[in-house]
Amino acid sequence: MARYQVILAYDGTHYHGFQRQANKATVQAAVEAGLRHLGWRGRSILAAGRTDAGVHAFGQVIAFDLDWNSSPSELQAALNAHLPSDVVARSAHIVENGFHPRYNATGRQYRYQLFCRSERDPLRERYAWRVWPPVDFEVLKSVSQSILGKHDFAAFGTAPRASSNTVRVVTRADWYLEGSFTGVESLVFEIVGDAFLYRMVRRLVYLQVACAQGKTDETLIPGLLDQPPPHPVQGLAPPQGLILLRVYFPEETPGQPTL
User: Fold this and answer.
1) pTM beyond cutoff 0.90
2) Of residues 161, 126, 145, the one with CA closest to residue 240
3) Every domain range in the chain assigned CATH 3.30.70.660
4) Is the dihedral of CA 129, 132, 137, 139 positive or negative?
5) H or E element, residue 51
6) Where along the chain do the CATH 3.30.70.580 domains lie?
7) Which fold would CATH assign to domain 2-95?
8) In tens digits, what is the pLDDT along the chain, a chain of 259 residues?
9) Catalytic residue ranges
């Protein structure tokens, strides 16, 4: 019996999030069903985090114990043979028995993509938020800098447990432009932190966009960080623009180029 770490990518469109739920399609349930074909008898796989319904991943990390007599690469291939087309194991390898992808993680990187267009764009909206009226890109870049550092992010999300605090450290918060075959550029937000509160990234994106559309003052985000309210503020960017890009572990440096 060995513990395996697997990096997953998935399209979250048709899933009610990562975490298993009764009578609903989830990524965890799909992966566990695939593992059972390989002789896995565990109760639950371990995961680095729980993505929301409709959120995608390129670097979700899971772990599980399995009796497997072949190589990790053969395990990867065998698991992929039993996964649905919108979920894939990108890699597999053996780790220490006590490894836990959530508690051993030292950082996480998310990407959020949007574009500005008045009419629908069915070829892009599955993976991006269509925003109108257009945003001021320079304002986005400016307000994102206030997110950097150690702050109480209670205004932007909830902790996983009632006893947990809402202080997090953000080491990167950047907006950049990306070309598109449609001729309308994508606006991409990438954020790296030690950990994230529930729906924190989507609230941060929503409020940054509101500032960049002139709907709210640019001092809003710094003010919420300086004096957090008792409950998260209203407003969420849609889930389909969000991707869990990478999870970092002690031997890695957060902010390195994405694999």
Assistant:
1) yes
2) 126
3) 107-248
4) negative
5) none
6) 2-95
7) Alpha-Beta Plaits (3.30.70)
8) 999 999 999 999 999 999 999 999 999 999 999 999 999 999 999 999 999 999 999 999 999 999 999 999 999 999 999 999 999 999 999 999 999 999 999 999 999 999 999 999 999 999 999 999 999 999 999 999 999 999 999 999 998 877 789 999 999 999 999 987 777 799 999 999 999 999 999 999 999 999 999 999 999 999 999 999 989 999 999 999 999 999 999 976 555 444 4
9) 52
